Amino acid sequence: MENWFRVTGGIIYVNIRAVPGASKNECTGIKDNRLKIRIAATPEDGRANAELTNWFAKTLGCARRDIQLISGEKSRLKIIAIPLKCEEQLRKMTEAKD
After folding, report:
1. For the chain, N or C: smaller number of CB within 10 Å?
2. Cα–Cα dist 84/26, whole Å
3. How far apart are CA 79 and CA 67, in angstroms?
4. Domain boundaries, position 77
5. 67, 61 in Cβ contact below 8 A?
């Protein structure tokens, strides 16, 4: 059973563990029911959060405005919301990392 995301009302809520200050942006797999994402930006002044949402939009092929940070603004443990239409791309992004 996949516990790292849930679908409610046409929105996918994804549990994230963000690792800021990485050498590049990348998904490194699923651990402890969270999608682990390495982010190249530093966590100062919201840069890592902005980079995270921009990276998700680009990777999933959707508009930046469609990606929302729901919780964890100042934490490494975050929840983001993405449109249900991006589910296939989200699964493809994580397939090779499981």
Report:
1. N
2. 21
3. 11
4. 5-85
5. no
Partners of residue 10 on adjacent β-strands: none
- For residues 17 and 80, is the Cβ–Cβ distance under 8 A? no
Q: Are the beta carbons of 64 and 52 closer than 8 angstroms?
A: no
The sign of the dihedral angle between the CA atoms of 76, 41, 22, 65 is positive
Q: What is the pLDDT of residues 2-45, one digit of tens each?
A: 789 999 999 999 999 999 999 999 999 999 999 999 999 998 99
* pLDDT for residue 1: 46
Cβ atoms of 52 and 16 within 8 Å: the answer is: yes
- Identify the CATH number of the domain in which residue 16 sits: 3.30.1200.10
pTM of the model: 0.90
Q: Are 4 and 17 in contact (CB under 8 A)?
A: no
Residue 74 lies in a domain: yes
CB-CB contact of 59 with 93 (8 Å): yes
Looking at the chain, the whole-number percentage of residues with pLDDT higher than 70 is 96
